[in-house]
Amino acid sequence: MLLGAKQSVEDFVIQILAQHGDYTVEDLKAIISEQWHQDITIQGIYRVLRKLQRDGIVVKEKRFYSLRVPWILHVREMLDRMEETYLQEKFLSRYLPSSEEETYTWIFSNLIKLSDFYLQLLFALVHASEDKIIYQYHPHPWFNLPQLDQGQKFNTIFLEKTHYNFVLIGSDTFLDRYSTAQWELYDNLTYHHQGSHEPIFEEKRGKYIIVVAPYILTITLDSHTTTKFDEFYTTIPTSDDLKPQDVVDMFTRKVRAKVVIRRSPERIRRYTKRFKKLFGPAPKRFPIQ
Q1: Cα distance between residue 230 and residue 171, in whole Å
Q2: Domains of the chain listed by start with CATH number
Q3: Residue 5: which pLDDT band, with cuts at 50, 70 and 90?
Q4: Structure pTM?
Q5: pLDDT tens digit string along 184-220?
Q6: Which end of the chain is more exposed for a tag (fewer CB within 10 A), N or C?
């Protein structure tokens, strides 16, 4: 599925040709092998290209392959419709309470589904925010870990919509830093990993806090999952020790997670004060206007 969580060779070919036209089969094989570490034969690439030609996505000229312009125009039209449907206030406001008396709550038993929903909520919160400043506390920055490539793409797009982001990570293990390694690329993102000698920000290890005025979002994991996360993060000292199956096992286990969004000026003031004590005030002139 194009740009889905589990990508196929078709997806790889389309992404490559989207960045540069006129590639040979040998070019495509080399790029797929280098970037995605996929071992595929020349014959396998030919089979994929023939299917994409039948589907009207790819065109061949002599030895070179490119995306068909009519298909590109069709995708652009579809993306425009998707943006009008999903990225406007009418749709995004369905996730947000309209008054202080309202509280929206969701319960999840699956971490991957929770991660997907969390990213959706973030976009809705920022869209509704006037100052576009985000304060976050994460005991562990795990939300992008199951889908690092997609998470990276989301971060790039998401951060373009914000003015400034302050993220406090409640741990300083190798995996915590591995999960945030790409964050240094963003000028409007400031983050800090809390060492064991520093004061505890939140007593509940399973509680995640996101403040985007006028809303506050909390995500609370059950105690067993919280313990498993701490064990998971402390037992992986290098990238070589991060096995795909271990990630799958961690994120497909049954959990109980509670997601709550509310409008609470008092809680927002209290948490914002604590975040500002750590990070200082947000700059008066933001890097993105």
Answers
A1: 9
A2: 9-85 (1.10.10.10), 87-279 (3.30.870.10)
A3: low
A4: 0.74
A5: 888 888 999 988 778 888 889 999 999 999 999 999 9
A6: C
Distances (CA, A) of 26 to 13, 30, 120, 246, 256: 12, 6, 39, 34, 48
Contact (CB, 8 A) for 26 and 63: no
* Surface-to-core class of residue 82, CB atoms within 10 Å of its CB (0-12 exposed, 13-18 middle, 19+ buried): exposed
CB 261 within 8 A of CB 92: no
Q: How high does pLDDT run on average in the chain?
A: 87
Of the two residues 113 and 89, the one the predictor is more confident about is 113
Residue from 152, 153, 162 nearest 124 by CA: 162
pLDDT at 3 over 70: no
Q: List, as own/partner pairs, every contact residues 38-45 make where C-beta atoms lie below 8 angstroms and the sequence separation is at least 24, other chains included.
A: 38/9, 38/12, 40/9, 44/9, 45/9, 45/13
**Burial (CB count within 10 angstroms: exposed 0-12, middle 13-18, buried 19+), residue 11:** middle
The answer to whether residue 79 scores a pLDDT higher than 70 is: yes
- Side chain identity at residue 285, one-letter code: R
